[in-house]
Amino acid sequence: MAFGVLAAIAAFARHGPKGARGSFVTVRLRLARYLGLALELQLAADILSTAIAPSWEQIGKLAVIALIRTGLNYFLMLETRHEEDQIDAEKRKASPPSPPPTQPSRPAVKPPAVGS
Q1: From CA 107, how far away is CA 104, in angstroms rounded?
Q2: Number of helices (H) and strands (E), helices first, in the chain?
Q3: How far apart are CA 31 and CA 6, in angstroms?
Q4: Would you say which domain of life the source belongs to (predicted)?
Q5: What residue segments make up the domains of the chain, in order of their start?
């Protein structure tokens, strides 16, 4: 997670705080991916620590932690997909429309002569 924060800070510094909206959103999406990965790794670590000699209290705490982290990860990824879709839509809107694909022309075929 620390690596993700450092990478996001470096990218933000490179693009500048007054950069375009797209660069800010790109930095946010990069940080969101690192946060999602960190949530998954922390959940795995909690599961492994509980697997050694679990008590019912530890299992209950793990269930609550797993529920909270899974919910956070779900909504984080949902927002990430939404932002990526908006960026794609803006790119499609900004780019000139491409011409429709052309079909290769077929040579004209003469029908066979009848009665020749």
Answers
A1: 10
A2: 3, 0
A3: 9
A4: Bacteria
A5: 2-94
Tokens of 68: 């909270």
User: How many CB atoms neighbour CB 8 within 10 A?
Assistant: 20
Q: Which two tokens stand for residue 91?
A: 């790119």
| Cβ atoms of residues 72 and 32 within 8 Å | no
User: Is residue 33 a contact partner of residue 4, using CB atoms and an 8 Å limit?
Assistant: yes
Amino acid at 95: S
Q: Report d(CA 42, CA 4) in Å as an integer.
A: 15
Mean pLDDT of the chain: 78
pLDDT at 63 over 60: yes
> Which one-letter amino acid corresponds to residue 33?
R
pLDDT in tens, 66-85: 899 889 889 988 988 888 88
Find out whether 80 and 32 touch, Cβ atoms under 8 Å.
yes
Structure tokens at 44: 């795995």
Q: Higher pLDDT residue, 108 or 43?
A: 43
